[in-house]
Every structure is written in structure tokens, then in C-alpha cells.
């Protein structure tokens, strides 16, 4: 093949047509640049042109945060039941099966142990892809297990949130998870545990109102939507226009709701720094 059109600079990659298949490009919603999906994935789903943070797969977060991407998952076989036999437009039991197949995991949170710069930690990473990351009995139970583990081992707990809130399909049982997780967190805190939250896009409803905002240190990703009710609902309720950037992490940082906005590439070193400063063995 002629080399005339190949770019010589190491910073510019040349793709051959045969390397690309349908759907392998994605348009950045922030800068409109068309980026190659593989490059985006290698960059932990951050646009290399404008630093826009796309939503990242749960296991990629574990790769990003833990030493050598090594972790040990627990509670992965726990699956939601359908206690109310809930049937609206779709049967809840069918929805669970569909999302299990679609996402390859059994629930909307992955819980694991791993190390950050050689310090043992417990991690819970929420998965927005699984029924909107909503917290039903299994998510509540697994987060509970993660808190208990951090508490008994006396190691830091990190929760990466991504959720639309409580899982309506489980009714009051879903709401009980707020009480359960916050009580466990209170006990962990009383025992001197270090709890860090990383709020990612979107963190709303019951999750922001419980585990999300209870971190000793609250970090957020750039431009993440963080709030309780959605902006549309608030606008309709109060009948006023909302301020520019309302409910985005930059706005919340200014208002003192969060401690720091951290770019994904800086997340592990930043977590490590917090642990180094605040974790008492
Ligand atoms: Zn971009």
C-alpha cells in the first residue's frame, strides 16, 4: 500500500478502512469530534479531544482504580427476586433477565476488594446500564456487604455511584435500602472508617440522597449530573428557569456540595492521596 497518505507523527493514528466496522465511531456530544471507539475505550472513555467523560463500564473502573487492575469480586451471584410480582408495561422478572443478558452481570452494582497503591480497599461500583443503576434489594444488600467488609477489616470504602434512584419495581422494599445502607455507613463512620464517594453521571434520586452524599470525601467526575429530582421536574414545579449548569458537578462544587472534581486519569492517584492522608490503620 502506498505510504503517501500515512501520517508520520506518532500522535496521529491512521486507520485503514478494513480495520473499521459499522458502529466503530462515536460522536463526542461535547465537542462533536468523531472518535474511534477503540481509542475511546483505551482512554477509559474520555474524549481525547476535549476531555469529555463518557459513561464508563463498571469493570473498567476497577481496572482504572486497582493496582494492576486486580480485584476480587464478591456477591456476584446474588440476583433480584420479584417480591411484588410487579407488572407494569413490562414484567419486572423479565426485565431482570433482559438486563442480566444485556450487561453480563446480575445486578446494578459490582462489589470487590482490591488494592490502591498497596492499601487494601473495598469497592462498590454502580452500573447505570442495569435498569438505570436503580437500588433495589440486591443493590442495597451488596452495598451493605461492602460496608460490613470494610468495617470488619478496618479498610477504606470507595463507592462509585451512577443511578437514577430507588427501584420502583420493588416498592417499599427498595426504599428500605436507603435506611439500611445509611445505618451501616453511620456505624462504619462511628468506628473510624474512611468512606469516599465518586459521583459519576448521573447520580440522582435516592442514591444522591443517601450513600452518594454521605462520603467523608465526596468526589465527582466533570460535568456529571448530580441531584435529587431531575431539572425538568424542578422547573415545572417552581415555574422558573434554572441557573446555567444547574445540577452539574461544577455547579455543585461552587455551592459546596462536593469536595473536588477529579478527571478520570487522576482518579487513582487522588484516591491514593486521600487514603494516605486520612486512613488510620
Ligand atoms: Zn470531545
List the helices and strands and how they pair.
Blueprint: E1 25-27, E2 34-36, H1 37-42, H2 58-65, E3 71-74, H3 92-103, E4 109-116, E5 119-126, H4 137-153, E6 157-163, H5 171-190, E7 195-203, H6 205-208, E8 217-220, H7 231-238, H8 249-254, E9 260-261, H9 264-278
Parallel strand pairs: 5-6, 6-7, 7-8, 8-9
Antiparallel strand pairs: 1-2, 3-4, 4-5
Helix pairs in contact: 4-5
The structure holds zinc ion.
The arrangement of helices and strands along the chain is EEHHEHEEHEHEHEHHEH
Averaged pLDDT, please? 92
CATH superfamily of the largest domain: 2-enoyl-CoA Hydratase, Chain A, domain 1
Beta-sheet strand percentage?
15-25%
C-alpha-based Rg, rounded:
20 Å
CATH architecture annotation name of the largest domain: Alpha-Beta Complex
- Small molecules bound: zinc ion
Total helical segments: 9
Structural class: alpha/beta
Instruction: Enter the CATH topology name of the largest domain.
Output: 2-enoyl-CoA Hydratase, Chain A, domain 1
Give me the side-by-side strand order of the main sheet.
3-4-5-6-7-8-9
Poorly predicted runs are none
Relative helix content: 25-40%
Regarding CATH, which class of the largest domain?
Alpha Beta
Q: How many domains, in number, for the residues?
A: 2
- What best-fitting shape do the alpha-carbon axes yield? globular
Number of strands: 9
**Separation of termini?**
60 Å
Main sheet specs: 7 strands, mixed
Describe the structure.
By secondary structure, the chain is α/β, with parallel strands linked by helices. The protein has two domains: 1-54, no CATH class; 56-278, 2-enoyl-CoA Hydratase, Chain A, domain 1 (Alpha-Beta Complex), CATH 3.90.226. Helices cover 34% and strands 17% of the residues. α4 (137-153) runs parallel beside α5 (171-190). The model has no long low-confidence stretch (mean pLDDT 92). Zinc ion (ZN) binds next to loops.
Amino acid at each position: 500500500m502506498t505510504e503517501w497518505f500515512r501520517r508520520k507523527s506518532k500522535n496521529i493514528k491512521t486507520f485503514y478502512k478494513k480495520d473499521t466496522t459499522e458502529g466503530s465511531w462515536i460522536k463526542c456530544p461535547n465537542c462533536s469530534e468523531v472518535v474511534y471507539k477503540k481509542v475511546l475505550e483505551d482512554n477509559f472513555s474520555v474524549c481525547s479531544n476535549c476531555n469529555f467523560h463518557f459513561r464508563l463500564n463498571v469493570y473498567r473502573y476497577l481496572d482504572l482504580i486497582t493496582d494492576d487492575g486486580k480485584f476480587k469480586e464478591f456477591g456476584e451471584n446474588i440476583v433480584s427476586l420479584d417480591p411484588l410480582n410487579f407488572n407494569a408495561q413490562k414484567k419486572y422478572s423479565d426485565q431482570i433477565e433482559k438486563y442480566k443478558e444485556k450487561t453480563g452481570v446480575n445486578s446494578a452494582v459490582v462489589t470487590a476488594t482490591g488494592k490502591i497503591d498497596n492499601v487494601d480497599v473495598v469497592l462498590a461500583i454502580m452500573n447505570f446500564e442495569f435498569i438505570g443503576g436503580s437500588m433495589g434489594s440486591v443493590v442495597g444488600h451488596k452495598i451493605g456487604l461492602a460496608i460490613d467488609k470494610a468495617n470488619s477489616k478496618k479498610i477504606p470504602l470507595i463507592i462509585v455511584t451512577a443511578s437514577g434512584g430507588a427501584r420502583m419495581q420493588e416498592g417499599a422494599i427498595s426504599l428500605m435500602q436507603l435506611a439500611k445502607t445509611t445505618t451501616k455507613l453511620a456505624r462504619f463512620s462511628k468506628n473510624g472508617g474512611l468512606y469516599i464517594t465518586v459521583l459519576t453521571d448521573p447520580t440522582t434520586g435516592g442514591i444522591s440522597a443517601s450513600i452518594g452524599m454521605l462520603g467523608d470525601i465526596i468526589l465527582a467526575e466533570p460535568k456529571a449530573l448530580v441531584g435529587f429530582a431531575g431539572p425538568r421536574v424542578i422547573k415545572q414545579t417552581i415555574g422558573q428557569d434554572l441557573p446555567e449548569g444547574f445540577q452539574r458537578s461544577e455547579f455543585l462544587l461552587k455551592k459546596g456540595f462536593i469536595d473536588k472534581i477529579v478527571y478520570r486519569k487522576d482518579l487513582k492517584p487522588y484516591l491514593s492521596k486521600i487514603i494516605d492522608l486520612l486512613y488510620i490503620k
